[in-house]
Amino acid sequence: MNNTAIYQEVDACTVNTITPTTPSRDLLITELYQTHNSWLLGWLRRKLGCSFDAADLVQDTFSRILQKDDLTNIKEPRAYLTTIAHGLLVNHVRRRDIEKAYLETISHLPQAEAPSPETINIMIETLTKIDEMLDGLSGKVRNAFLWFQLEGLTHAQIAARLSVSVSSVRQYIAKALVHCINTE
Fold first, then answer.
1. What is the pLDDT of residues 49-60, one digit of tens each?
2. Which domains, and CATH codes, for the chain?
């Protein structure tokens, strides 16, 4: 493959071609950032409705790009950036939802029993990690696992809730455990 990376950006009004004068990785990143940073910020701002969160995700997107070894194969820069930013956006929204639910749950605690800010942060991080580990499991498998682990329900109680056999519940819990081990 040719050492010169050529990116084409097709816009509704114009076509811009970025051709670095050297195959330098730094130059590729600089041109990618200068050319698409504002566009990506606007795209994320529209999705999130918050300029501050959008700016954070733009920086996270470019941080991910800095970790990539080979950037010469990027043919569609906006599609590439959008793919990375979308993944970060999904994680951001998921974490925000978990944080909101946790804070709502602990808001009912008496002040003396309320966790410290450090504990709150640790719990939100832990819950986010658990959510990521359980991502991809079916609803029945996820629920069986959570009811067993967090609520201490028996296999029979879970089977009744899910309208399945106890044997199925055992399989669901085993499947979730294997999934979590493989996700780590």
1. 999 999 999 999
2. 7-122 (no CATH), 136-184 (1.10.10)
Percent of the chain with pLDDT strictly greater than 70: 88
Q: Which residue in the block uniquely carries the two structure tokens 């409705």?
A: 49
11: helix, strand or coil: coil
Q: Which stretch of DSSP H or E encloses residue 17?
A: strand 15-18
What is the maximum alpha-carbon separation in the chain? 68
Residue 23 confidence (pLDDT): 53
Q: Taking a C-beta distance cutoff of 8 angstroms, is the pair 71, 25 a contact? A: yes
Residue type, 154: T
179 and 136 Cβ atoms separated by less than 8 Å: yes
Overall pTM surpassing 0.70 (yes/no): no
pLDDT tens figures, 64-97: 998 887 777 888 999 999 999 999 999 999 999 9
Burial tier of 9 (Cβ tally within 10 Å: 0-12, 13-18, 19+): middle
Q: Which two structure tokens, joined as six digits, stand for 115?
A: 């966790």
The DSSP-derived string for 104-170 is HHHTTS-GGGPPPHHHHHHHHHHHHHHHHHHTTS-HHHHHHHHHHHHS---HHHHHHHHTS-HHHHH
Per the listing, tokens 């009004």 go with 13
